[in-house]
Design a protein that fits this description.
Chain A: One of its GO terms (cellular component) is plasma membrane. Chain A: One of its GO terms (molecular function) is transmembrane transporter activity. The structure holds 2 protein chains of 2 kinds. Chain A has 13 helices and 5 strands. By secondary structure, chain A is mainly α. In chain A, the strands form 2 sheets. A two-stranded antiparallel sheet of chain A has the order 2-5. A two-stranded antiparallel sheet of chain A has the order 3-4. The two termini of chain A are about 15 Å apart. Chain B is globular and about 70 Å long. In chain B, strand 10 and strand 11 form a beta hairpin. In chain B, the strands form 5 sheets. In chain B, strands 5-6-7-3-8-9 form a 6-stranded mixed beta sheet, sandwiched between helices. In chain B, strands 15-18-19-12-20-21 form a 6-stranded mixed beta sheet, sandwiched between helices. Helices cover about 30% and strands about 25% of the residues of chain B. The chains are: A mainly alpha, B alpha/beta. The interface between A and B is large, with 44 and 73 residues.
Chain lengths: ~350, ~500
């Protein structure tokens, strides 16, 4: 308390006020562990309800379509989550990175689909690294940095592509196959990316450092940890995965275009928030972002099948985001509120 | 002083935090027209009492009665300056008028009330439009008081208003305080500077360990009796417990601080701390002593001087660099810098030593738990609770974890900033024991403290500081409390 203020309120027959309300919220938070548990449970319950209630939902074709619809956004969301966890909010250059990557992939497709993929990922990593240096080493605001980064990327790509669609001179159908006839390649890559990111977050020194810096940057500094290299790592991860999403997006049509992937950035942020990852940093993991992407995709899919209009779907999505934010807020309050 | 009305009366107030008693049956009357000094060591309960009066926290029992039922005539001037540097003088004072009708203050009335408040606070001729950051520190402090006055306060609580001021500036604040009392207000004056108490106050209340231990007109006290009341008779006996310091000096390393200066904080500070010894920097808030410990661990841009470990200079002093060189740090601010509240005890304790609990960059859970348990036992923390989040622990236990985090790194030098601030007595002794034990293992320990009792428990050597300079250095066994306190209050041996 550092204020000059007249003392407010009543003549103090100062018996301590009851704090039961807060205690109850705290108990709720402790029971849930954290918001992501609530989100995961919600997802499973919604999935089961959809299977039972929504006609045509629980068919193999629909489920495959559902997974395909979220795979690419999911990959971008997993990348975004690293930035959120290290405490740098969001990258607003994900859409731009995806769009430019579609062009790079299409342009390099003549050299083979896997090679083109690697080039696109490398581009994303470098773009992320540049923004990471600005946001980490030079302590620039991450939101402003990535808005500027997006503008520069789109601008340069516009010059080279002259605004036209770039048709790939090669065959990208390898990314459209179904593994064992069931599992689409894109979905497999999404699952692999999620698994690896979760593992790094959960079990490696790198993941732990990112979490600690996100939780409390100054306490991490006291321990001798430096935050800026970790911020760079987060932006590289986000950029590389946006590049991957862009390459896979381009592989669907064999073409690159700056109009592609325009909604990826916002959808990835939605997935991160809905997944229960705290925007304050340190709490949540990449798996939560994947679950968030799945939840959003599940809802859209079911709402379409039920026959709701686009407007209604938007409202439902908005409410879902607000719900997630409230749950995340309550959970983190309950955790932080203890013995401040 | 004529017999006068009581403007504010504290009656039988009790307060506990968790299990620790902060205030026990405190009753004090503050009279119209008097400057009433409230004295006590850190942790004596002054700020708890003041917060209860200001209704920032509520008491467990007892009551506070003012001349107005809602206590709206009591204003609080907090220790840290809360004026907003970018805003003008006018805007800063206007901020405390915010609660006017409908949130809108008629401009004319505002102008005259602001002027009135400024004049009472000794800032009569000041330009209303000058930004506050252009004012010298003392004027900002007076502005702080003006903000309190703007709300028509009858009782004004001043929490260490002169802690960061120079002598001339202090005199100015004193003049204002005297005239405010003469106008018929009651002034509650909290300070650590004993000299100014005699110069300024009409009445003195001394608190110790949450109780009022002395209360009366200033003429009833002298310097010696005040120190005795503040410290308590039992601590005048000297060292409470002397640890066996038989160590093998072979592995010990020496921290050498040479001619260290940081502008506006401290100047030309030199000392050495040998492994196996605890050296305390002792000074008031604002003495620069806490800034010295922060500089040693790499938080300040040095203007000159060096920090060496044995003969090796720790170059490009940063927190990361000094940690790598073997200097660990425990911050005074537990919540902001000390611990990761939402993370488990294990994750807190291993946060500085991740390479040693992993193989090839992959964390080994068993190693983490083993390390955490061994560190926990060193700081007398219950091993079975290492999986709990630190945020669920008591303040004392949180501090043990903060210290454990530093111990886990096996430092050559451990630097602590107010290691027992806000920690209850029980946890304190555990912390002292852990630190003494650490010193006996050849670690050089440097601690900043503003608590003379703590020095007795903890330190081998004491370096006193006053206004950015070292005053002198003592073996703790061969100096009296009165001497130490006098050195940090007056800057003279």
């Amino acid at each position: 308390m550092t204020r000059t203020s007249p003392a407010p309120a009543v003549l103090t027959d100062v018996n301590a006020g009851a704090t039961t309300g807060r205690t109850r919220i705290r108990a709720l938070g402790e029971w849930a562990g954290d918001a992501s548990v609530i989100i995961a449970v919600t997802t499973v319950v919604l999935f089961l309800i959809a299977c039972l209630v929504v006609p045509e939902f629980a068919t193999a074709d629909n489920l495959r379509a559902l997974l395909l619809s979220i795979a690419l956004v999911g990959i971008a969301a997993v990348g975004m989550s690293v930035i959120t966890i290290v405490g740098r909010l969001f990258s607003l250059s994900v859409s731009a990175t995806v769009a430019v990557s579609t062009i790079i992939f299409a342009g390099a497709l003549g050299l083979g689909p896997w090679f083109a993929l690697v080039i696109a990922v490398a581009f994303g990593a470098v773009a992320g690294a540049v923004q990471g240096v600005l946001a980490g080493r030079l302590k620039a605001d991450p939101i402003v940095t990535t808005i500027a980064g997006a503008a520069v990327m789109i601008g340069i790509a516009q010059i080279f592509s002259e605004g036209r669609t770039v048709a790939g001179a090669g065959d990208a159908s390898v990314f459209a196959i179904n593994i064992a006839g069931v599992l689409p390649m894109q979905v497999l890559i999404f699952l692999l990316v999620t698994g690896v990111a979760w593992w790094i977050h959960r079990f490696t020194v790198l993941g732990r450092k990112i979490t600690l810096v996100g939780l409390n940057e100054r306490a991490a500094e006291v321990s001798g940890l430096r935050s800026w290299p970790l911020v760079i790592v987060a932006f590289v991860a986000s950029g590389a995965l946006a590049g991957l999403a862009g390459a896979l997006l381009a592989s669907e049509s064999g073409q690159g275009n700056l109009q592609l992937g325009a909604t990826f950035g916002f959808d990835a942020i939605t997935a991160v928030v809905v997944g229960g990852i705290s925007v304050k940093g340190g709490m949540g993991n990449p798996l939560n972002a994947a679950v968030g992407a799945f939840l959003v995709g599940l809802l859209s899919n079911a709402l379409v099948l039920v026959g709701l209009t686009y407007e209604t779907q938007l409202i439902v999505k908005g409410v879902l985001v607000l719900f997630a934010i409230i749950i995340t807020g309550v959970a983190s309050q309950a955790k932080n509120g203890a013995r401040r | 002083m004529t017999a006068t009305a009581t403007l504010l009366s504290v009656e039988g107030v009790n307060k506990s935090f968790g299990g620790a008693r902060a205030l026990t049956d405190v009753s004090i009357q503050f009279l119209k027209g008097e400057v009433h000094a409230l004295l006590g060591e850190n942790g004596a309960g002054k700020s708890t009492l003041v917060k209860i009066i200001a209704q920032v926290i509520s008491a467990d029992s007892g009551r506070v009665v003012g001349s107005k039922a809602d206590l709206s005539d009591v204003a609080m001037v907090f220790q840290e300056l809360s004026v907003i540097p970018d805003l003008s003088v006018r805007e800063n004072v206007a901020l405390s008028l915010r609660k006017a009708r409908n949130g809108v203050i008629p401009k004319k009335a505002q102008e005259s009330r602001i002027r009135e408040a400024l004049t009472s606070a000794g800032l009569g001729g000041i330009d209303l439009d000058v930004p506050v950051e252009a004012l010298p520190l003392a004027q900002r402090q007076l502005l702080e008081i003006a903000r309190g006055l703007a709300s028509n306060a009858e009782t004004l609580i001043l929490d260490e208003p002169t802690a960061t001021l120079s002598d001339v500036e202090i005199r100015r604040v004193h003049d204002v305080v005297r005239s405010l009392a003469a106008e018929g207000r009651a002034i509650v004056y909290i300070t650590h500077r004993l000299a100014e108490v005699f110069e300024l106050s009409n009445r003195i209340t001394v608190m110790r360990a949450g109780k009022v231990v002395a209360n009366g007109p200033t003429s009833d006290f002298d310097m010696a009796s005040l120190v005795t009341h503040m410290l308590g008779a039992e601590h005048r006996a000297g060292v409470v417990e002397i640890f066996d310091n038989t160590f093998d000096p072979g592995g010990a390393r020496t921290l050498r601080v040479k001619a260290l200066s940081v502008a506006n904080k401290f100047n030309d500070v030199s000392f050495e701390v040998c492994g196996g010894e605890v050296t305390a920097l002792f000074g008031q808030i604002g003495s620069g002593a806490d800034e010295v410990v922060r500089a040693i661990v790499g938080y300040s841009n040095l203007d000159s001087g060096s920090v060496r470990l044995d003969e090796h200079e720790i170059s490009g002093l940063s927190r990361h660099g000094s940690q790598k060189a073997g200097v660990s740090y425990v911050s005074a601010d537990r919540v902001i810098e000390g611990v990761f509240l939402t993370a488990s005890v294990v994750r807190n304790l291993t946060s500085g030593v991740l390479p040693s609990v992993s193989r090839g960059g992959v964390l080994t859970n068993a190693k983490e738990i083993a390390l955490a348990k061994s560190v926990a036992s060193r700081v007398t923390f219950d091993e079975s609770r290492v999986r709990q989040p630190v945020g669920s622990l008591s303040g004392g236990n949180q501090q043990k974890i903060a210290i454990g985090r530093a111990l886990a790194t096996n430092p050559a030098v451990l630097v602590l900033n107010e290691p027992t601030r806000g920690v209850d007595i029980g946890a304190r002794s555990g912390i002292y024991r852990a630190l003494r034990k650490l010193a006996s293992r050849n670690v050089a320990v440097v601690v900043y403290s503003s608590d003379v009792v703590e020095l007795r428990e903890l330190a081998d050597n004491v370096i006193t500081m006053f206004r950015g300079k070292t005053v002198s250095e003592h073996r703790v066994t061969s100096v009296t409390d009165a001497q130490l306190v006098s050195e940090i209050l007056n800057g003279t041996a």
